Amino acid sequence: MRGSFTRALTGALGVMAAVAGTVASAAPAAADSVVVGGSPAEITDAPWVVALSSRDRFGGTRAGQFCGGVVVAPTKVLTAAHCVSREALGGAPWQLPDFSVIAGRAALRGEGGQEVRIADTWVNPAYDPTTNSGDLAVLTLAESLPGSYVIKVAAPGDAAENPGTPADVYGWGDTSGNGSYAASLRSARVQVLPDGACERAYPGGFGGVSYRKETMLCAGDPRGGRDACQGDSGGPLVARGVLVGLVSWGSGCGEAENPGVYTRVSAVVPERL
Questions:
Q1: Which residues, including other chains, have CB under 8 Å from residue 181's CB and lie 6 or more apart?
Q2: Is pLDDT larger for residue 235 or for residue 61?
Q3: Range of the domain at 141
Q4: From CA 225, how far away is CA 9, in angstroms rounded?
Q5: What pLDDT sits at residue 206?
Q6: Phi–psi pair at 52, nearest 5 degrees
């Protein structure tokens, strides 16, 4: 919702644009520097990053990619709850016969890797689409991915969540905030920011959404220019080698005064996946 306020992929369908806006907005950046202000990423360095795909719903231009996800167990992928909403998918997840994840592939329309169907979808019962709190879904895959694809999830109080910690956000989303999507995986170096930065940026009021540190994590570049954007929703924020956040929402892309807001996975991931 990052454009209108969340961050999924904008595409030919109006609903797709809504999802894109819902996931992560971003400010202008150089063309093809996806995840605004980023650079190309090798899938071998980040095998846990996957693309959520449905060609039936979103077309084949981007191999059906509309959100990101992260592998946390051989058959489990975390993503944002708003990515699997009826608004985003046009119905329930099980109604999309080709709903799958693309794993082990940096170039969406390239070769290699594998496409695995999603057998089941669990949405955090505490997820509130009005406030974006608890923006988490767990996808169960029909087949197991290699154990080498799995990344560890940060535990509550992990030092990786401390303000000032360098972190990397990954995705195939908008590289400019103007609908310029990347064909291959990108990453951008940001840093975990103090909760106060997002509390000031998103105080709520006048119908606005407020930042909630209990279930959200704030990250970005204090100078602006680096951020997640539309199409990156559900993708990973990694710090010190562990997963600390999932791209969730924000206002604009790469704007210094509007940091990215991520789902704080240590607070909302179920103990048993």
A1: 9, 34, 62, 172, 173, 174, 175, 231
A2: 235
A3: 47-149
A4: 20
A5: 61
A6: -85, 135
**What is the tally of structural domains in the chain?**
1
92 in a structural domain: yes
Number of Cβ atoms within 10 Å of the Cβ of 24: 41
Q: Is residue 225 part of a domain?
A: no
**Is 232 inside a domain boundary?**
no
Report the distance separating Cα 107 and Cα 113, nearest Å: 10
**Assigned domain for 79 exists:** yes
Q: Is the pLDDT reported for residue 30 higher than 50?
A: no
Q: Domain of 127: which CATH number? A: 2.40.10.10
Q: Which residues are catalytic?
A: 82, 135, 233
Q: What single DSSP character describes residue 1?
A: -
What CA–CA distance (Å, rounded) separates 185 from 35?
Answer: 9
CA torsion angle for 25, 28, 33, 38 (degrees, to 10)? -70
